[in-house]
Design goal:
Layout (H helix, E strand, L loop, with lengths): L12 H7 L4 H6 L15 H7 L4 H13 L5
């Protein structure tokens, strides 16, 4: 896995949570089970936004803000 993960609609959920643990709070705050879901390793941010009826652009902004507060793992 490289050091930087682009925060975009196609970003892999599991890789994002693993690389930037602070983003887990964003998923939890929105009551999205992605943090403990086995399927997260196969899903993109766009996928889970569709599943949980979340606004993609707003969610991406929240994830970006959370990664800025985190040191990559």
């Amino acid at each position: 896995m490289n050091n930087v993960i682009s925060i975009n609609a196609e970003a892999n959920v599991d890789e994002l949570i693993t690389r930037y643990p602070t983003v887990a709070r964003v998923f939890i705050r929105r009551r999205m089970a992605c943090v403990v879901c086995e399927i997260a390793r196969f899903e993109s941010i766009a996928d889970v936004c569709g599943i949980y009826h979340q606004p993609l652009e707003t969610f991406l902004g929240e994830l970006q803000a959370a990664t800025e507060k985190s040191v990559p793992a």
